[in-house]
């Protein structure tokens, strides 16, 4: 069993004010707030000294604390709009904790709706981040070649890569996308470097069916199907 290390923490950025799915981050997901499920998944890994939630919402804070996370302060309005990057929110929490002499060496950022995170993946991510890299993300292959994608403008179809259209699938380069399950980073990297996909950022590959991004009601239904499928296994 992997022991908790004092200098490893998790941070969940969970602001209020979701418009497309009201109260998305604390919406009941099979009888439990989805944020609660994510917190419990993180606790189950036994990796983290503490799990912190960055929020501007009293409702979210109350639920986060109920399931064992800490909310040391309320996020400012300036960092709670639609344009603030996740990295700025993580930096804000790290700086707050540093002022309280709560120091860390490794930080794992997890979104509140990431109920489907896998303990093995998180532990593998920690192993990777301890090597020569700044960040570790999860990634998955596109189910269809994105090179054959097209845009529709004024009822007209425009190929993104016309040269790729007649190529065999096996001749096209395999392209991956950010699966958004979690983001490991050295604390100093979160503070001093930008999270970009380069040689200092490593990836853990996960199957496409485990990927979910909840932004719409349709996404929520898909997440429910994924959860049910996992329960049967």
| SSE pattern, N- to C-terminal | EEEHEHHEHEEEEHEH
**CATH architecture annotation name:** Alpha-Beta Complex
What average pLDDT do the residues reach? 93
CATH topology: Spore Coat Polysaccharide Biosynthesis Protein SpsA, Chain A
Q: Give the amount of beta strand, in percent.
A: 15-25%
Report, as a whole number of angstroms, the end-to-end distance: 23 Å
Q: How many domains comprise the coordinates? A: 1
Q: Number of DSSP strands?
A: 10
Overall structural class, as computed from helix and strand content, comes to: alpha/beta
Low-confidence stretches: none
Tell me the helix content: 25-40%
Radius of gyration (CA) equals 19 Å
Side-by-side strand order of the widest sheet = 4-1-5-9-6-10
Q: What is the CATH class designation? A: Alpha Beta
The CATH homology group name: Spore Coat Polysaccharide Biosynthesis Protein SpsA, Chain A
* Number of alpha- plus pi-helical segments: 6
Largest sheet: 6 strands, mixed
Shape: globular
List its salient traits.
alpha/beta, Spore Coat Polysaccharide Biosynthesis Protein SpsA, Chain A, six-stranded mixed sheet, two-stranded antiparallel ribbon, 29% helix, globular
How does this structure look, described?
It is built from six helices and ten strands. Helix 1 crosses helix 4. The strands form three sheets. It has a six-stranded mixed sheet, with helices on both faces. The chain has helices at residues 34-45, 58-66, 86-99, 119-129, 187-192, 217-232; strands spanning 5-13, 28-29, 32-33, 48-54, 106-109, 135-141, 150-153, 156-159, 176-186, 201-205. The protein has 233 residues and is an alpha/beta fold.
């Amino acid at each position: 069993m992997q022991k908790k290390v004092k200098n490893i923490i998790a941070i969940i950025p969970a602001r209020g004010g979701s418009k497309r799915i009201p109260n998305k981050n604390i919406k009941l997901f099979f009888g439990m707030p989805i944020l609660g499920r994510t917190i419990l998944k993180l606790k189950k890994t036994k990796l983290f000294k503490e799990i912190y939630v960055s929020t501007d919402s009293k409702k979210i804070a109350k639920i986060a604390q109920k399931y064992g996370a800490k909310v040391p302060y309320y996020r400012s309005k300036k960092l709670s709009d639609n344009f603030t990057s996740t990295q700025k929110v993580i930096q804000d929490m790290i700086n707050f904790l540093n002022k309280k002499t709560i120091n860390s060496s490794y930080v794992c950022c997890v979104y509140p709706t990431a109920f489907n995170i896998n303990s093995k993946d998180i532990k593998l991510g920690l192993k990777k981040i301890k090597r020569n890299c700044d960040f570790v993300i999860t990634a998955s292959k596109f189910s269809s070649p994105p090179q054959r994608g097209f845009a529709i403008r004024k009822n007209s179809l425009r190929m993104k890569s016309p040269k790729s259209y007649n190529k065999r699938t096996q001749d096209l380069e395999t392209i991956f996308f950010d699966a958004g399950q979690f983001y490991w980073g050295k604390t100093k990297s979160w503070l001093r470097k930008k999270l970009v996909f380069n040689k200092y950022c490593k990836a853990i590959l996960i199957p496409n069916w485990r990927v979910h991004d909840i932004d719409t009601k349709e996404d929520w239904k898909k997440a429910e199907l994924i959860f049910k499928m996992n329960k049967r296994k």
